[in-house]
């Protein structure tokens, strides 16, 4: 008896709830493993002697509970509970990690001086979620990127990922579709997947999210769009003025689709800000965090949004539940209004841009083309399979990250690397460029030998 037939026999039930519970038990007992296919709706309906709609309803319940995932023609499969990819250093490796996505710790301002300015009265329950002084400053900071015709209110959250998570949860239910850039920022991708929403890929090119891709996602019924208008992670792409205008035109017919802009690089960006949010859009949010320039441990982001979204978001952040510390807010404000700190941030922005451009030049001198975007990383298109290249790099002492971790749908990810190289000195950068060229050559030879 084959595996698929055995599984069909084990699933039982006459109602949607009974069938869903039976599948749950099979998963919990290990009879159904992660990635394993469930019977088709037709096959299981015939097996159990029920209507197809009953099986459809059961599978919908399982999808909403995160037990299974639907993959179109790939069928319905048991959800993979394996740990999702995260930013940061790889634990337990002796290799030089060039896939961290981290800012340079030497470029993060020292908080010692700012800490001395935090004396003030205690903040008690029932007070506003956002510190009044930070709110006043942030209105000007975010206002420069928002169409003046839009009414807006501010909310504070524990970082950009927290803001995106709460924005989606206040607007969506499980299995709702969300448009994501492809390739995608890991935090946004993980938030959507773990929240039980359906990611719909929108391709990204040199000018950012594509018009055709967004149009197709809207036709597919997405209820939210998450976009990084500049320094898109991992590609480094930034929206051009023309592309942003074209995207706004597409969104004009969908004013109630929630548009979330994550301007994570903000004060470090070397590119102008072009928004997807038009003057008539009804549901929107712009999120700016401080983690890239004040440090990842400064878990704080400010969100500007339409009043209804702001009200729903604020209710989820009321004091006594998930309050963002006013001490942390005051510390961030003290740094962001210190001319010495802002000068250091400007210096860091120049450093990241210069080091990335210099490394791209090193690769070009070795016959490897690399487009320089904005942000902390470089997105490298390879002439050989990325997995083979990373294996060759490991033999030479480097730990790199393939583009497949960031990709939703495009098989071309098999030929991408995301590199974090801004913290390498000239000697290490030269060595990596040499080793990368050698790794690409070895991977190409290996691939050609397999074909031959």
UniProtKB/TrEMBL annotation:
<dbReference type="GO" id="GO:0003677">
    <property type="term" value="F:DNA binding"/>
</dbReference>
<protein>
    <submittedName>
        <fullName>DNA-binding transcriptional MocR family regulator</fullName>
    </submittedName>
</protein>
<dbReference type="InterPro" id="IPR015421">
    <property type="entry name" value="PyrdxlP-dep_Trfase_major"/>
</dbReference>
<dbReference type="InterPro" id="IPR036388">
    <property type="entry name" value="WH-like_DNA-bd_sf"/>
</dbReference>
<dbReference type="InterPro" id="IPR004839">
    <property type="entry name" value="Aminotransferase_I/II_large"/>
</dbReference>
<dbReference type="Pfam" id="PF00392">
    <property type="entry name" value="GntR"/>
</dbReference>
<dbReference type="GO" id="GO:0030170">
    <property type="term" value="F:pyridoxal phosphate binding"/>
</dbReference>
<comment type="similarity">
    <text>In the C-terminal section; belongs to the class-I pyridoxal-phosphate-dependent aminotransferase family.</text>
</comment>
<keyword id="KW-0663">Pyridoxal phosphate</keyword>
<dbReference type="InterPro" id="IPR051446">
    <property type="entry name" value="HTH_trans_reg/aminotransferase"/>
</dbReference>
<dbReference type="InterPro" id="IPR036390">
    <property type="entry name" value="WH_DNA-bd_sf"/>
</dbReference>
<feature type="domain" description="HTH gntR-type">
    <location>
        <begin position="13"/>
        <end position="81"/>
    </location>
</feature>
<dbReference type="InterPro" id="IPR015424">
    <property type="entry name" value="PyrdxlP-dep_Trfase"/>
</dbReference>
<keyword id="KW-0804">Transcription</keyword>
<keyword id="KW-0238">DNA-binding</keyword>
<dbReference type="GO" id="GO:0003700">
    <property type="term" value="F:DNA-binding transcription factor activity"/>
</dbReference>
<dbReference type="Pfam" id="PF00155">
    <property type="entry name" value="Aminotran_1_2"/>
</dbReference>
<keyword id="KW-0805">Transcription regulation</keyword>
<dbReference type="InterPro" id="IPR000524">
    <property type="entry name" value="Tscrpt_reg_HTH_GntR"/>
</dbReference>
